[in-house]
Specification:
366 residues, alpha+beta, FAD/NAD(P)-binding domain, Alpha-Beta Plaits, 2 domains, nine-stranded mixed beta sheet, 6 helices, binds flavin-adenine dinucleotide
């Protein structure tokens, strides 16, 4: 019988890890599936504080995901990342006390290489296990900036996010949530908010370029991520059509999903680059015509149920998962962003990659 891991399941070598009680926490900014996976992969080796500005982890882009998990993505690095998440989800699926259940699907005609699942249950599973291992979680709190000393992270500035009077917390635009308001906690040296000690900062902000423009990151770093819009258009298939759960992909251009989650509905997703303004009705109609033409889609597009989400595509079309210092930023800042439409599939692999980089840094600077 498969058991879900009862502690963070990763390959870090704990023998050389700094003594957990000897260092301030690693602060992970962003409690989406990616930040949660980073916290999950780190927890048990070092103290970790997961900071989420929303009411609870997972309520931003992760909640919007269709829920497709792929065992392979067709790229050597991404396949490694995907395998980590797939194995974790599979272990959860087989565990009688885990609510995570997979609906297995074919991927590009090959059976058993993809599955549908509830993204929030996947996140909850990681969060629960990490919390059991000691993860601290702070919600309705925003990481505003790192505190640097000698070009290295020694703390982070936090601001509470509340409903009371305050300053709008968003710097920049394009986030997928509504606007929160901030209330200062304690006046710090150079601004409002509260400063806490931190041994490293991991930014996992999802589609939030403003968080990637913080002090301490290399100039122009946020500009390495391309803004993209993902338009998901459901097609209602003709009566009597009950397709097997199946996922079809066309990397970087157009994906089409036939999902078993909602019978007779086929989801087509198209990715557009450019600004973050919603596409006009005419643009969506043109997209539908293009999809129908390319793939010969049956059924009718349900334009009133079309969803648009914004995201960041990482440098070279790949996620960024690691330290920023080699690019000229401060030591001790790490970024996990640019997952595109594959963040669920990539999350745990990316989490482990970043956790390994953080542990390497902490060992080197003990
Ligand atoms: C329509 C659509 C369908 C998709 N379907 C799939 C799918 O089927 N399969 C798949 O693998 N992927 C899918 N994706 C992609 C997937 O949803 C994302 O890649 C993934 O959710 C990104 O997770 P994240 O943790 O990076 O971002 P998010 O879930 O957005 O989490 C980031 C979090 O960081 C918080 N935050 C940001 N800045 C700060 C800060 N400074 N301080 C504190 N908190 C902060 C935000 O509040 C947010 O909660 C889909 C995407 C879209 C748009």
């Amino acid at each position: 019988m498969n058991h879900p891991p009862n502690r963070p399941d990763h390959d870090l070598d704990r023998r050389d890890a700094p003594r957990p009680d000897a260092i301030p926490p690693v602060v992970v900014a962003g409690g989406g599936i990616v930040g949660t996976a980073v916290a999950f992969a780190l927890q048990g080796s070092v103290p970790v504080l997961l900071v989420e500005e929303g009411d609870f982890p997972g309520l931003a882009e992760t909640r919007e995901a269709v829920g497709i998990l792929k065992a392979v993505l067709g790229h050597p690095v991404l396949d490694d990342y995907a395998r980590a998440t797939w194995d974790f989800a599979l272990a959860q699926h087989h565990h009688p006390r885990s609510p995570v259940r997979l609906t297995f699907a074919g991927l590009d005609g090959r059976p058993g290489r993809a599955a549908f699942l509830d993204p929030l249950l996947l996140l909850d599973a990681m969060l629960l296990l990490a919390r059991r291992a000691g993860l601290q979680l702070r919600t309705r709190t925003r990481v505003v900036e790192p505190v640097l000393d000698g070009g290295r992270v020694t703390g982070v500035r936090l601001e509470r996010v509340g409903d009371g009077p305050g300053t709008a917390s968003r710097r920049g635009s394009g986030g997928s949530h509504g606007s929160h308001r901030t209330a200062p906690e304690t006046a710090g040296a150079t601004g409002t908010g509260k400063i806490i000690a931190a041994s490293a900062l991991v930014l996992a902000p999802g589609p939030r370029p403003d968080s990637l423009a913080m002090p301490g990151l290399p100039g122009g770093f946020a500009g390495r991520f391309v803004r993209v819009k993902d338009v998901v258009i459901p097609f209602l298939l003709p009566p009597g059509t009950e397709p097997e759960p199946e996922v079809y992909t066309r990397r970087s251009l157009i994906w089409r999903f036939a999902t078993g989650m909602q019978p007779r509905t086929l989801l087509a997703a198209a990715r557009l680059e450019g600004d973050w303004a919603p596409p006009s009705f005419d643009q969506v109609v043109a997209l539908v015509e293009d999809l129908v033409h390319r793939f010969g889609l049956p059924g009718e597009a349900q334009l009133d149920r079309t969803r648009l989400l914004v995201d960041l595509r990482g440098p070279g079309g790949l996620p960024f998962a690691g330290p920023v210092a080699p690019l000229g930023g401060a030591e001790g800042i790490f970024v996990a962003a640019g997952m595109g439409l594959e963040g669920l599939s990539l999350a745990l692999g990316v989490g482990r990659q970043v956790a390994a980089a953080v542990m390497h840094y902490l060992r080197a600077h003990r």
